[in-house]
Amino acid sequence: MAYQRVAAYDELAPGEARLVELTEPVCVVKLDDGTVKAVHNTCSHQRYPLHEGWIDDNEIECGLHGSTFDLDDGKPQGLPAVRPIPVYACKVEDGIVYVDLDTKLNDASEPRH
Ligand code: FES
């Protein structure tokens, strides 16, 4: 697999977390500075969908119990989650956002379905 188109860059609002269904559910995030990140959409604690949470700086907060995850290394920054979430390669070219599920930026495992 390679990079897959997931959104037009301009249609993502700063601070937005959007669910994109590829072969895995992916949460595509546009930070306030315009940077785009991509992580697995499933919280490593009790599988809550992360796109329903909140973005704060470079972290996403799970909407169920409040663990936050770093969007660069996927590591939880506080309990109750203790395992990282997968972080995927993401790029913007010609106004289009792409994600490559085969290129993970950390060694976190995808959650079981
Ligand atoms: S399900 Fe995300 S912190 Fe509990």
At CATH level 2, the architecture is: 3-layer Sandwich
| Main beta sheet strand tally, sense and closure | 6 strands, antiparallel
- Chain-averaged pLDDT: 96
Question: What is the CA-atom radius of gyration, in angstroms?
Answer: 13 Å
CATH superfamily: Rieske [2Fe-2S] iron-sulphur domain
**What sort of overall outline do the alpha carbons produce when their principal axes are compared?**
globular
Order of strands in the sheet with most strands: 1-9-8-4-3-2
Beginning-to-end CA distance, first to last residue: 20 Å
Structurally, the number of domains stands at 1
Outline the low-pLDDT stretches: none
Q: How many strand elements?
A: 9
Helix content: under 10%
Structural class: mainly beta
In N-to-C order, the SSE pattern is: EEEEEEEEE
Instruction: Specify the number of helices.
Output: 0
In CATH, the topology is named Rieske Iron-sulfur Protein
| Strand content bin | 35-45%
Q: Give every kind of bound small molecule, once each.
A: FE2/S2 (inorganic) cluster
Describe the structure in your own words.
The strands form two sheets. Strands 1-9-8-4-3-2 form a six-stranded antiparallel β-sheet, with no helix packed on it. The chain has a three-stranded antiparallel β-sheet with strand order 5-6-7, with no helix packed on it. The chain has strands at residues 4-8, 16-21, 25-30, 36-40, 54-56, 59-61, 68-70, 87-93, 96-104. The protein is built from no helices and nine strands. It has one domain (4-104): 3-layer Sandwich (Rieske Iron-sulfur Protein), CATH 2.102.10. Helices cover 0% and strands 42% of the residues. With 113 residues, it is an all-beta fold. The structure holds FE2/S2 (inorganic) cluster (FES). FE2/S2 (inorganic) cluster binds at residues 43, 45-46, 48, 62, 64-65, 67, 80-81.
